[in-house]
Specification:
Layout (H helix, E strand, L loop, with lengths): L7 E7 L2 E5 L4 E4 L4 E4 L5 E4 L7 E5 L6
Antiparallel strand pairs: 1-4, 1-6, 2-3, 2-5
Length: about 60
């Protein structure tokens, strides 16, 4: 479980992943499902399926 200083969008591209938030809420994401996690909110990314899984993590551009 960790929190980052910027918000992130997670998009599952293969398999199934579970996103667990610090309040215990769990979101099961399948291929092309996505979730936005705001800055400072702790989350854990779990692969509980036993099969390979992959995701894209989308973040805002770095400040110039």
């Amino acid at each position: 479980m960790s929190a980052g200083p910027i918000g992130k969008v997670y998009v599952v591209t293969e398999g199934t992943l579970t996103i667990e938030q610090s309040d215990g809420v769990r979101h099961v994401l399948r291929v092309l499902d996505s979730i936005f996690i705001p800055p400072g909110e702790a989350r854990a990314v779990l692969n509980e399926s036993g099969a390979p899984a992959a995701m894209l993590v989308i973040t805002p551009a770095a400040a110039k």
